[in-house]
């Protein structure tokens, strides 16, 4: 079915991830070949909802020339925010308090006023929930999945994840040599609020001795035992990789800042917590490092550039075919689409019975729980 599109908008929302510029470039190149105009909204939807806050032009024309040479660059040329959900938009009151307002209908009207026929929304689980809400209000929308956390449902992988894992793995590699030389325990805290994909993959690739995931509440004594077993075998250093959302059996996540109006909770500090407990339990010298936003920065890997390009081109193809209210996905080697309603606001956790977790256990990596006998190296 012909979609009669002349002009589309692009938005990047949530935490930035390597590959966003490659996706933007792909959408613009593919759309231009169909004769469509592309307009990029700055800083999530703030370019339309709060244009005065944007330092640059709130809505920028995206041409083949303006996306030239951006595919290998980190970040997003459009800017992004994880604090501007249009359906729960934070509005400051006269008394200084902040309350949430539903500005979804107003946003759809702003699209119409600007003659924007459709939206390509590039983001994570939160962005897909917003995209679904706008679709329900009558806007033509296709979602493109990105996030370093890889926690979006119904797609095998999001772009950003591969680059984050590659960098985290390099960090773990580097920490091995210093930990080994100093006979220390080194704890590496990665991002990953509610899903431990980055910690699991970087820990596996980097040869960590313990990996702590949000999906497996851990017993610090089990981790200390694993360290002691290594010491007894003459391996005097240990590397522990912990996702920021990992937590002990008997307490919750370490929260830096509680959730507030228009913003999610901020996690951080589990690395330092584990460092202190392991030092006390083993008597060994222990240090922790937080990789944090370093995982989001820098250029996308070749894999992420290709997936981002394929997603961007597929989003245009999908709109051209008259589809709306869907997200493009990676399904094996193929690109497919799923209804936004099936991914909106959902989190894809690490399945405890997946082959990577099973392999970690078979290699003797401590996952912080009472693993089958014989585990540990
Ligand atoms: N286009 C947007 N404009 C403004 N705010 C947005 C937009 N997209 C997402 N947000 C906000 O950011 C939050 C997180 O979005 P999303 O889940 O897409 O990001 P993410 O990639 O998973 O990263 P993170 O959750 O860490 O921010 C959303 O709940 C919402 O409040
Ligand atoms: O510090 P910020 O930018 O608010 O976001 C941090 C969050 O972003 C994510 O990296 C996802 O992009 C989470 O893992 C992390 O908790
Ligand atoms: Mg998210």
UniProtKB/TrEMBL annotation:
Transmembrane segments: none
UniProt-listed Enzyme Commission number(s): 2.7.1.11
GO-annotated molecular function: 6-phosphofructokinase activity
Cofactor: Mg(2+)
Compartments it resides in: Cytoplasm
Top-level enzyme category: transferase
Active site, UniProt feature: 149 (proton acceptor)
NCBIfam families: PRK03202.1
Entry protein name: ATP-dependent 6-phosphofructokinase
Source species: Telluria antibiotica
């Amino acid at each position: 079915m012909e979609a009669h599109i002349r002009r589309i908008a692009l938005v990047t929302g949530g935490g930035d991830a390597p590959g966003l510029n490659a996706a933007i470039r792909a959408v613009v190149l593919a759309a231009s070949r169909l004769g469509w105009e592309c307009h990029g909204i700055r800083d999530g939807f703030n370019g339309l909802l709060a244009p005065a806050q944007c330092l640059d032009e709130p809505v920028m024309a995206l041409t083949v020339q303006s996306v030239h040479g951006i595919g290998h660059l980190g970040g997003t040329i459009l800017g992004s925010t994880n604090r501007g959900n249009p359906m729960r938009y934070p509005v400051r009151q006269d008394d200084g308090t902040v309350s949430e307002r539903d500005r979804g209908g107003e946003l759809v009207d702003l699209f119409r006023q600007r003659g924007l026929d459709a939206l390509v929304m590039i983001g994570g689980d939160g962005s897909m929930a917003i995209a679904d809400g706008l679709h329900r209000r009558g806007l033509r929308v296709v979602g493109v999945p990105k996030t370093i956390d890889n926690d979006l449902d119904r797609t095998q992988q999001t772009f950003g994840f591969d680059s984050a894992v590659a960098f985290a793995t390099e960090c773990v590699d580097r920490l091995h040599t210093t930990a080994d030389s100093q006979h220390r325990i080194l704890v590496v805290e990665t991002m990953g609020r509610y899903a431990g994909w980055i910690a699991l993959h970087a820990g596996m690739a980097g040869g960590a001795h313990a990996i702590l995931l949000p999906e497996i509440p851990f017993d610090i004594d089990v981790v200390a035992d694993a360290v002691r077993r290594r010491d007894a075998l003459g391996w005097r250093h240990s590397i522990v990789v912990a996702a920021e959302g990992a937590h002990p059996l008997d307490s919750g996540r370490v929260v830096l800042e509680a959730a507030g109006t228009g913003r999610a909770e901020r996690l951080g500090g589990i690395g330092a917590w584990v460092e202190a407990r392991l030092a006390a339990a083993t008597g060994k010298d222990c240090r922790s490092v937080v990789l944090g936003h370093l995982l989001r920065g820098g250029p996308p890997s070749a894999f992420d550039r290709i997936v981002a390009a394929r997603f961007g081109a597929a989003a245009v193809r999908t709109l051209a075919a008259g589809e709306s209210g869907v997200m493009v996905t990676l399904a094996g080697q193929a690109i497919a689409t799923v209804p936004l309603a099936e991914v909106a606001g959902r989190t894809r956790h690490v399945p405890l019975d997946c082959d990577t977790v099973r392999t970690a256990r078979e290699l003797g990596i401590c996952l912080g729980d009472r693993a089958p006998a014989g585990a540990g190296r």
